[in-house]
UniProtKB/TrEMBL annotation:
It comes from Terrimonas ginsenosidimutans. It holds the Pfam family FAD_binding_2. Keywords: Flavoprotein, Oxidoreductase. Its cofactor is FAD. The keyword Oxidoreductase applies. The keyword Oxidoreductase applies. Residues 524-657 form the Fumarate reductase/succinate dehydrogenase flavoprotein-like C-terminal domain. Residues 35-462 form the FAD-dependent oxidoreductase 2 FAD-binding domain. SUPFAM superfamilies: FAD/NAD(P)-binding domain (SSF51905), Succinate dehydrogenase/fumarate reductase flavoprotein C-terminal domain (SSF46977), Succinate dehydrogenase/fumarate reductase flavoprotein, catalytic domain (SSF56425). This is Fumarate reductase/succinate dehydrogenase flavoprotein subunit. InterPro entries: FAD-dep_OxRdtase_2_FAD-bd, FAD/NAD-bd_sf, Fum_R/Succ_DH_flav-like_C_sf, Fum_Rdtase/Succ_DH_flav-like_C, SdhA/FrdA/AprA, Succ_DH/Fum_Rdt_flav_su, Succ_DH/fumarate_Rdtase_cat_sf.
Amino acid sequence: MLDSKIPAGKLEEKWVDYKGHCKLVNPANKRKIEIIVVGTGLAGASAAASLGELGYKVKAFCFQDSPRRAHSIAAQGGINAAKNYQNDGDSVFRLFYDTIKGGDYRARESNVHRLAEVSVNIIDQCVAQGVPFAREYGGLLNNRSFGGTQVKRTFYAAGQTGQQLLIGAYQALERQVALGNVQMYTRHEMLDVVVIDGKARGIIARDLISGKTERHFGHAVLLCTGGYGNVFYLSTNAMGSNVTAAWKAHRKGAFFGNPCFTQIHPTCIPVTGDHQSKLTLMSESLRNDGRIWVPKKQNDDRKANDIPEEERDYYLERRYPAFGNLVPRDVASRAAKERCDAGFGVGTTKQAVYLDFRFNLINKYGRVEASKLGIENPDEATLVRLGKEVVKEEYGNLFDMYEKITGENPYEVPMRIYPAVHYTMGGLWVDYELMTNIQGLYALGEANFSDHGANRLGASALMQGLADGYFVIPYTIGNYLADEIGTKPIPTTHEAFEKAEAAVSDRIKTLIGIKGKQSVESFHKRLGKIMWEKCGMARNEKGLKEAIVEIQQLKKEFWSDVRIPGNINEMNTELDKAGRVADFIELGELMCKDALDRNESCGGHFREESQTEDGEALRHDDQYMYVAAWEYKGESDWQLHKEKLEYEVIKPSQRNYK
């Protein structure tokens, strides 16, 4: 039933061969075809801009007041590409291999190799757009290291890489808006997809200012709506990030792939109390120069700078000498949790570890700068001063952000960090062409499951989003639309549109008519607590079964006692949030079901029953070498479909970063 449409032939030739043989739509016919793009972050903005440039008639929707507010803007550390500017052994194959291995052999080979191939084009595209990547003294683009690799392949713009890349994509999008090729709908939220004769033919959207629902036709629909990390309530995601568009597609028949595969980022500012509504990421790029440690003594209450070197446990360097502080995110996160659970955590909550820059401040940067200036035998104060200047240029805005939030100066004392929910590898199931199992419905970027397996390597999210939008979908969508050029626009008075809009309106009326006593926020917090404690960094059969029952009970309570003030036909952010939380509750149940069904550990999915003697994730390839694609059948009812993963080039093995 699942056809991944992977081209035949050698792995390194599949994408080239596909591009040479896929169907095309001629320029005159492109002007007859309408495409809907939902979400205008990196994947959505780049897709809408590219398709508009090709001549298609594009409608782009975002719930923010501007595409510039998409969550892509929050990405800090960088974007991967196999340029090998450092001449340190990188290649397309090496990036492909690192990504497959980093995802613990749970990703599709063909998609990942294509991603590695087009990564080199992304940098050229962005430089041409004027993205201000960091450069070395001679003017060449600079690179830094990220987790899960032993080469420098990450391009960056200080700690604002996502922002700069989004501005580049936004400018390309706005050019098409100005030319009339793209029609932009801001403050609009997609609340259903319209399917006619098995094909996606439009969406129902709600104007978040007036509250009115609208019908929009498209020959194809692209969902570029990001991930669902906010199901945990506390995450590094923007507070508006949600799963609603993808979930509506799922309820209309689109399969949801690997929903339990969520990523815990090891480098976040720790939780300080119940008052928080989100968490703040400290870029993984900081692990490039920071050393992570805890005291060797349990419950050590001394200040970090009072603990001598010999009493510090650089546990990542000790456990994983080959990769050290640059192990993949899932490995680093579990190691931090293990140390804190064992009583070696720091800070007031003891749920934190140190990220210390002083060593490299002095020995890596300070000594190099002193040498440049011809200073012989510099004292430590001079080395620190010179090193600070370099670090400030590389990471200054991140250090400033940390100090504003915590009140501590990370140049003087180590940062305190702890893992937090960040990215979701699961998403709508798509084939090689990025099409879901519903004809004409595509999912790009974090909204799909395709490229990262069970764990995403750092700096690969931006890479995937731009690859999908700029370099993949312009080819693959043409292969589908070439057979649609004779399809005339379907009037939005069609029965399917009327039925979909009526269902959306009925749900909204039901929500606002509950008139309960509990706030939407309180339900979201309770859901997040269940998910974090029982489907978070560690999972077990007992906890997952309990979570499923608790979420089902929470759902009943939500639909009988939620309180939503205000009216429907007006700007009502509480009503918007209620719909999103209702979808999160349903998604949370499926995530726990998927985690329970996958009785192995892989990447960020860590089942306590399945681990090696030294606490590493233990896969069971003979039983679970597949993509779990879930079909919605009804309330609390899903059917599992399996896409078997075939590895022709890489031989899966127990991951080893030692």
